[in-house]
């Protein structure tokens, strides 16, 4: 349990470091001085809204240029799960290679998530690919 708390603390600290430096420049073709359309912002906190088997799901996304970094915590039918990842952004789609640090028995320990920002900017929707399996992912933007 102490390892999970330590990991989450480190992930949040790193996430806040990336948030403070994140520029979302990839979403705008204008010069750096132009304001980014906040609806197209991917960096931030997202809540897992995949289905009722998932609870307390939180995804932190940070962006530095076109690089993406994530930390993800969820509980699946009461069992905790923790993973982190890195990848890239291409327009409104992010592709993340994830590594599981607290596994749910029977689940794999690495995979790829591909998520696309919805037209209204309120959801990241896509799929995970892991161990030859795939399935849906859906996150709702939390806060601003």
TrEMBL record:
UniProt keyword annotation of Signal present: yes
Name of the protein in question: Uncharacterized protein
This protein's UniProt keywords: Signal
Organism name: Pseudoalteromonas luteoviolacea NCIMB 1942
Stretch forming the signal peptide: 1-22
